[in-house]
């Protein structure tokens, strides 16, 4: 897959500008919103307890569900997602039960995703965090197939909180090959440079989860000689 060269403004439109630290405050969220508006990112991604939040027109609001462990009952995930949408979220990033995937219980993974999808139907965007660094290549493929079958809109690499690590080009490529353009692919976790970001997009990522967005975009501008 080839892409025209991206400038900072174009790259920003791939970005969910993210703040999910447990110690985050409302002032931090206000600063995140202001920075997202200044940088021109696609969305902000914040913890559900910060919803509702005021954002300027054109900035989407994403939140997380079953985060970060995924070890929540499906009905609890569904209720959390529904509450978040009622509170103004337009996108929900849910975490699968990674252990179920490790045990090969992909039908259970699909059912978990489907429960959340039923609670937040379209036009809400549902992204499925698979924690790719904790999975084998085979498990990544099967979980992506489960997400597609359950009606998800995106598969996403990582929470950014798992000790196994975050996004890799290898995982993004497998995910993109598996969903074949039917779903989006979000690369998230440990993407800290413009080179990292561009490598993920080249591998098939259609969205990026970044907490250090300003530094990534500044790096792209520096590389371009702006």
From TrEMBL:
Q: Localized where?
A: Cytoplasm
Q: What is its main location?
A: cytoplasm
Key words, A-Z: Cytoplasm, Lyase, Schiff base
User: From which domain of life does this come?
Assistant: Bacteria
Q: Where is the active site?
A: 93, 156, 186
Gene Ontology, cellular component aspect: cytoplasm
GO molecular function of the protein, one example? deoxyribose-phosphate aldolase activity
**Under which pathway is this protein filed?**
Carbohydrate degradation; 2-deoxy-D-ribose 1-phosphate degradation; D-glyceraldehyde 3-phosphate and acetaldehyde from 2-deoxy-alpha-D-ribose 1-phosphate: step 2/2
Q: Which Pfam families match?
A: DeoC (PF01791)
Reactions catalysed, semicolon-separated, are: 2-deoxy-D-ribose 5-phosphate = D-glyceraldehyde 3-phosphate + acetaldehyde
According to its UniProt record, this protein's enzyme class is lyase
Q: What role does it play?
A: Catalyzes a reversible aldol reaction between acetaldehyde and D-glyceraldehyde 3-phosphate to generate 2-deoxy-D-ribose 5-phosphate.
PANTHER family attached to this UniProt entry: DEOXYRIBOSE-PHOSPHATE ALDOLASE
State the NCBIfam families in the record.
deoC
What's the protein name?
Deoxyribose-phosphate aldolase
Classification lineage: Bacteria, Bacillati, Actinomycetota, Actinomycetes, Micrococcales
């Amino acid at each position: 897959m080839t892409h025209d060269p991206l400038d900072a403004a174009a790259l920003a439109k791939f970005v969910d500008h993210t703040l999910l630290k447990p110690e985050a405050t409302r002032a931090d969220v206000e600063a995140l919103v202001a920075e997202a508006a200044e940088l021109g990112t696609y969305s902000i991604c914040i913890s559900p307890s910060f919803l509702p939040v005021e954002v300027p027109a054109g900035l989407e609001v994403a939140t997380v569900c079953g985060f970060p462990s995924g070890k929540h009952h499906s009905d609890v995930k569904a209720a959390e997602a529904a509450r978040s949408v009622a509170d103004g979220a337009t996108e929900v990033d849910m975490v699968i039960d990674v252990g179920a995937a490790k045990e090969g219980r992909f039908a259970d993974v699909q059912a978990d995703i489907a429960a959340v999808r039923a609670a937040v139907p379209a036009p809400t965007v549902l992204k499925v965090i698979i924690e790719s660094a904790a999975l084998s290549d085979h498990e990544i493929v099967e979980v992506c197939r489960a997400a597609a079958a359950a009606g998800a809109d995106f598969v996403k690499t990582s929470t950014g909180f798992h000790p196994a690590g975050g996004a890799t080009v290898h995982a993004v490529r497998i995910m993109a090959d598996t969903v074949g353009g039917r779903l989006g692919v979000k690369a998230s976790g440990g993407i800290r440079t413009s080179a990292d970001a561009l490598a993920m997009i080249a591998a098939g990522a259609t969205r990026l989860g970044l907490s250090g967005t300003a530094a990534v975009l500044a790096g792209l501008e520096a590389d371009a000689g702006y």
